[in-house]
Amino acid sequence: MRRIRITPASLIVSLIFAIIIIYISLPVVSLFIKTSPESFISSLNEPVVIEALKLSFLTTIATTIIVIIIGTPVAFINARYRYPGKELVDTLLDLPVVMPPAVAGIALLMAFGRKGVLGEYLNLFGVTLAFTTIAVVMAQVFVASPFFIRQARTSFEDVDRSFENAARSLGASRVYTFFYITVPIAMNGLISGAIMTWARALGEFGATIMFAGNFQGRTQTMPLAIYTAMQGDIDASLFLSIVLVITSFTVIAIVKILTRRRMIVAKD
């Protein structure tokens, strides 16, 4: 049996490792410590909590479906084809990831608000997007779509072309090959991207409050409800925070499992 040597360097590294783990885990654990079971259960009956939960899950599901529908062909094209301005398009698609959420909200407002570039024309036909539930979904799609598109593109790039070529040689159409060969092979990556997109949409705050506002039952999602409840109902804000923490942890765990499974399949 090999003996573990304790050196000053290993002690320093271990200390740094412990400090980082404690620093990250302590705030998360504190949420659960500061919440009693009674207050946790009572928060379930709070209208602000119920409406925020309902609105968040409805809008994020809608957002995820929209992103999958529009993001899958975009990811496939960028993974398989070259075209003029491709690098610029890739940069624009990734921009919402690094753009401050508040800036994203203002940008959406300047484009689709009542006085926006496109919004003022929509307003002539009585169509109002800003400060509505639709605006919540639009903000979520804007900030969350890169997470799916980037993951989907990588998944399509990793698909072995020989399987597609074999299907094509047997008479399969491009559409059939895509849906029955390419997509199933890339499925783990697509699911991971969709889950990350849903989680990012669930936690969206800045763009939503700037473009959709903070109206209970209409645009007040869970992050916005936490912000509002902090001013008067700490129990409700803690409850919603715990829900988001549990959701985030679950999402990360699922994505890691899917990623590990995809790596195992690739090796085999």
UniProtKB/TrEMBL annotation:
It is a multi-pass membrane protein. Residues 53-255 form the ABC transmembrane type-1 domain. Keywords: Membrane, Molybdenum, Sulfate transport, Transmembrane, Transmembrane helix, Transport. It holds the Pfam family BPD_transp_1. GO terms for cellular component: plasma membrane. The chain crosses the membrane at residues 12-33, 53-79, 91-112, 124-149, 178-199, 238-258. It comes from the Archaea. Belongs to the binding-protein-dependent transport system permease family. This is Molybdate ABC transporter permease subunit. It comes from Methanooceanicella nereidis. The gene is modB.
